[in-house]
Amino acid sequence: MPASDVRSRSVPVLLDRERRLRYDFNALAALEERFGNLDSAFEALGQKGTVKGLRALLWAGLIHEDPALTEEQVGAMVTLADLPRIMQAVNEAFKEAMPVVDPPKPPPGTEAGK
User: What are the sequence ranges of the domains in the chain?
Assistant: First the structure.
């Protein structure tokens, strides 16, 4: 798939009902607003793994289908027992959001380009 073929794909996740996670630019912007910048957002999630950070990450992936959804409402949909399953869906949704970039073509006249 060429890098120009970027689509927002969503991943199903069962919460209060089946919902779809999508990490498009709006979701990333929401995380920036919440944490100040994306580096801080991913730092809060990766190194500290805070419950607030995880809730915010899940919320950001859901607001494409329900912009009025609050972080508190999302938190009420999750139990600690749900976390492994939900984090697997979040990881899959992030993978789907990343474009697959074609490898660079070798310059003409090189061994690989002949």
Answer: 11-97
Query: For residues 53 and 32, what is the distance between their CA atoms, to the nearest angstrom?
Result: 12
Indicate the SS3 state at residue 19.
strand
Task: Split the chain (114 residues) into runs of 10 and give each run's mean pLDDT.
Answer: 57 96 93 86 70 90 96 95 92 84 76 57
The owner of tokens 């793994």 is 49
C-alpha to C-alpha distances, 61 to 16, 35, 78, 84, 110, nearest whole angstrom: 15, 15, 14, 16, 44
What is the helix, strand, coil percentage profile of the chain, to 5? 50, 5, 40
Number of H helices, E strands in the chain: 5, 2
Evaluate whether 11 touches 93 at the Cβ level (below 8 Å): yes
Q: Residue 105 is encoded by which pair of tokens?
A: 């073509």
Q: How far apart are CA 20 and CA 93, in angstroms?
A: 9
Is the pTM for the entire model greater than 0.90?
no
